[in-house]
User: Fold this.
Amino acid sequence: MLDPHTIEIIKSTVPVLEVHGKAITTVFYQKLFRHHPELLNIFNHANQRQGKQPTALAGAVYAAAANIDRLENILPVVKQIGEKHRALNILPEHYPIVGETLLAAIKDVLGDAATPEIMDAWGKAYQIIADVFISVEADMYNTAEAAPGGWRGYRNFIIDRKVEESRVITSFYLKPEDGQAISQYEPGQYITLRVKPEGEQYTHIRHYTLSAAPGQPYYKISVKREDAAEDKPAGIVSSWLHSHAEPGTVVELSAPAGSFTLDQTDEHPLVLISGGVGLTPMVSMLEAVLSTQPQRPVTYIHSAIDGSHHAMKEHVEKLASTHKQLNSYVIYERPLEGEACHKTGYIDLSFLRDTVDPMSDCYFCGPVPFMSSVQQNLKALGLPDERIHYEFFGPAASLEA
Assistant:
């Protein structure tokens, strides 16, 4: 435990972190990869280039400092990050490297303001925080390994099938190379894929949400091809999967993880809202609830640019035609000529008033601007915070305006 004086010093630095947090974490990653380039085999390079990872880390450091005397307040965040760490195979020996580098980055950015007393306090605080993460993640590793069909680290899987779902989304069905059982998962969870495309210096690791209900002898992921744009290069892993991975290709997976999961004990009406490839956890949740809660009313709303970008359209239509509990709606931003949809443009408050029961439990996923708009409209509709659930693809961000 930290002594009161150390806690006081840490909490006094919270305003400084608000101002300099991203600068500190940006320097942190620069130092980390310069001195430990082997860690580039773990971190998502694209998130580094786009500034997403430094922003997410700054938020986590800020939250830890603000709650240093009551870390139980951030335990949900610790568990969410711990899930990703377990999926990435982050180990206890990585934490001293991170701590040393983080302290050096704080000193570099704050200069003389980072007094020996402040640095000593942060050294003690980091060790406490690291111990919490290591303990939580140890339990997660043990649980993942002990589960029926479970494993620790990475396991070889073979691409069994490759199905084009839209002009930009393709599904991959993955079966274990050893032919043994695979661990089950909760609707909304993800697997973590590790590959080393030809010509790449480092391995690349990506989280992909499982896009089918549990209970199959395979894992299904549905991946959007991330093409190059003005502000970002093409996605390395998604491009490789779409262009080079074929049935028979072997990839490495870590066991399913993630804290964004469907509560299948709740009996309130369920609303699922997705934008683009954000449909992957929603379809898994949809299939699961139709199977396990046949009396629970479900509304599924999907938004896409147009029909050519709309994945799994026929699949959801078939589910709606065979399950009376399901109402399905489609919104196209710019429908192609002759395309039918329930609304043109975007999901707005008026549309939600007509389709969503304010007593519903709502889950949504998609691009950040899309999710920010959906959250704002759901709150305006009267849904309380505890009935609004969402997931980011990539590092955590904020939906607040």
